[in-house]
Amino acid sequence: MSNNLSKKEIERYSRQIILKNIGLLGQKKIKRAKVLIIGVGGLGCSVAEFLARAGVGTIGIVDNDQVNLSNIHRQNLYDIKDLNKPKVISTKKKLNRINPEIVVDIHNLR
Predict the structure, then answer these.
(1) Which helix (H) or strand (E) holds 7?
(2) d(Cα 6, Cα 19) in Å, to the nearest integer?
(3) Residue 91 is inside which H or E element, if any?
(4) Cα–Cα distance for residue pair 4/16, rounded to 1 Å
(5) Residue ranges in the chain modelled with pLDDT below 50
(6) Partners of 103 in beta bridges
């Protein structure tokens, strides 16, 4: 993964880049960042989505659960098509649809 920002990335993150405490240098740091999320339930799903939208370069996901019906109303990355699938697989697909330029490493374990 390159540390430089493409024109597309500059446009994508323009609202963050204009903030005086972020700028281009800050966005490059965000792109180089690596975050590990333990559990993609109610809170983990939201955190993962926000990190992907912000441009965090590598997001690791650890969870051994499957999506069930009671998850759908409160875990924003899942829908009916994800029922009975591993959460890490569904999460990776959704995050890569949101931001195909990030790396999502999944670990289907407790």
Answers:
(1) helix 7-12
(2) 19
(3) helix 87-98
(4) 16
(5) none
(6) 58
